[in-house]
Design brief:
The chain is of the alpha+beta class. The protein has a domain of about 130 residues: Hemimethylated DNA-binding domain (SH3 type barrels, Roll). The protein is about 45% helix and about 15% strand. It is built from 6 helices and 7 strands, in the order H-H-H-E-E-H-E-E-E-H-E-E-H. The strands form 2 sheets. A 5-stranded antiparallel sheet has the order 4-3-2-1-5, with no helix packed on it. A two-stranded antiparallel sheet has the order 6-7. Strand 1 and strand 2 form a beta hairpin. It is rod-shaped.
Length: about 230
């Protein structure tokens, strides 16, 4: 393929542009003077408009300002969307984390609502009890349909001969300090409980947090506790 120099390429371009240039000139000179003046004015007006819009620094500055304004608006919208999404994801994660933590609360301390109450749950929150074997008294502040304790404790508390007990209802007890038992709370299966009627006095520093009074048969639950055990 022959090599074409820059000078030759320029000559070819000039030759190729000669024909359309001749056509434009012939069209311009082929009209009367009034038409030539009108066409000349249009050419001047077009060139003036072109220079103002494309060759003016002020025009480009205005375009840049408009573009920056639109870009800033878009950026703010994107940041707002990202912020909302971050907040939403954070809320969902927090809710998920709270639910997970709630599901892992042991010893009848979970705040999920116990409704409906199974018929096989014999005792209720607020009843005063005595432990059949150890003899201490206390008051029920919560229950689970079956033992809800760490697995290691289950294995220790219920040897192979008593494994069936872990699947029976369990109760959280505030132990009466007057017994001098040494422990303040207990978590025991249903078969180890006997209910006492008419015994009002149970001494424990957390009593007022759980109960507001005594009705003659059991302690009256605080509103927050009643929401958890609506049928007790």
């Amino acid at each position: 393929m022959p090599h074409i120099s820059a000078a030759a390429a320029l000559q070819i371009c000039m030759l190729l542009s000669a024909l359309p240039a001749q056509y434009i000139i012939s069209q311009w000179y082929g009209t009367d003077s009034a038409q030539r003046i009108q066409r000349t004015e249009r050419i001047i007006a077009s060139w003036s408009s072109f220079t103002k819009s494309c060759l003016s620094l002020d025009a480009w500055a205005d375009r840049l300002k408009l573009w920056l304004s639109k870009a800033r608006t878009c950026l703010n919208i994107v940041l707002l969307i990202l912020h909302f999404r971050s907040w939403y994801d954070g809320e969902k994660q927090a809710e998920s984390g709270d639910n997970e933590a709630e599901n892992h609360l042991h010893f009848a301390e979970s705040t999920h609502i116990r409704s409906p109450k199974p018929e096989y749950i014999q005792f209720s929150v607020g009843q005063v009890i005595v432990h059949k074997r150890f003899g201490y008294s206390g008051v029920i502040v919560g229950w689970d349909v079956k033992a809800n304790t760490p697995e290691g404790r289950l294995q220790h508390q219920y040897p192979p001969s008593n494994q069936d007990l872990k699947d029976t209802p369990h109760y959280r007890i505030l132990i009466n300090k007057a017994n001098g038992f040494g422990k303040s709370t207990a978590y025991i299966p249903e078969e180890e409980i006997t209910v006492i009627m008419g015994l009002e006095v149970v001494h424990h520093p957390d009593m007022k947090a759980y109960f507001s009074g005594y009705d003659g048969s059991k302690y009256i639950m605080q509103p927050w506790l009643k929401k958890i055990y609506p049928h007790d």
